[in-house]
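INPUT
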Amino acid sequence: MAALRPRIATVWLDGCSGCHMSLLDGDERLMELAEKIDLVYGPLVDTPDFPEEVEITLVEGGVSTDDDIRKLRLLRKRSNILVSFGDCAVTANVPGMRNEFRLGEVLQRAYLENVSWRPSIPVAGVPVLKPHVRPLHEYVEVDAFLPGCPPPAMAIWYMLSELIEGRLPELGNRTRFGA
Amino acid sequence: MTSGTVLPRKRRVRPVGSHRILTFKINNRDVSSREDESILAVARQNNIYIPTLCHLDGLSEHGACRLCIVEIKNAPKLVPACITFPQEGMEVSTCSERVIDYRKKLLEMLFTERNHVCAVCVSNGHCELQDLAIQLNITHVRYEYLYPRLALDGSHPRFIMDHNRCVLCLRCVRVCDEIEGAHTWDVMNRGLDTRVITDLNIPWGSSETCTSCGKCVQVCPTGALSEKGKSVAEMVKRRQFLPYLQKMRRWEEE
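OUTPUT
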């Protein structure tokens, strides 16, 4: 029985984790959901690597580094359904607010101008920023979009339950950009 | 307010009784109208919904946003319903597959042209652009965002102009000219570089023509014009004054 439950993964790219918080905001519906799915990867699971085969992957956050692109391409290959989860994934949203400035200016502002103790731009151990933060669907094919900042818990729950049943849901007014 | 009584302001009003009455079809329904009523006005009188963004009851029509496009049988181009007038026997479709497809594309392009970050916008939850996205079922934008670098003018003591949210509907320009009579707002440049400006592109706060009446702020469909001191989602526009002022003025004209 347990083997038939769909394997679900969640991923956190350039976002604030608010979408994951909203997922947890599902209250008692989470109990119901937990019986229907296997959560196999994500910030809520203690697994280091993205598994080989996943049915549904929710990706929060925009694509802002080479590392994000690598993760995104890998999870796309290994997931049957990819959901663009929240406004940052769908539109670049708040992380994308840096896009109108040159990358040098952004780093200068964040790591030099506003730092009083040993200001320096980090180079080792952190992924290199791309000039722009971009939505997921500009890099890979996305199967379902779940806008909202964050998407309301009900909208996430509705999207997941429909996908589990094999239907691609119409969200209607359950959520919106900036919800 | 219904838009049925709203006439385009700059058209000459002929004496009552001299208007031809036309019969034509909208979505296969027979409708009748005066020849000087736009397709949009006639549709609304008949409870046929056509989405709009730049149109506002009480202001002249401008045809800027093109979201009210409709299909006319045997016409090659889609036409904006707000500035197109019916002809006898015309067959109009407001929701054909082609119309819906183009409407979605137009709205998506509006989102790519400026930086519409709903999550941090003063008008979040009270925005006509956002509402249209829900109505047209737009869950994502298929075009590349342009992320232009745009300024914010906070020089006015009471109001803020944020070009990041402007959709160039030009309601501000029209209300300032047609209702307030100040004509502080105007437009400069063309295409992607188009901007609304105050006076001859000077900071709003140093404008000598602005009367600080705030009508432009209240008619703005997005968070482009807002009141100072409003935080995210706090800017709710109040438009009640517009149909009232327009009605009073029509009395004066009569």
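end of record. Chain A has one domain: 7-98+130-164.
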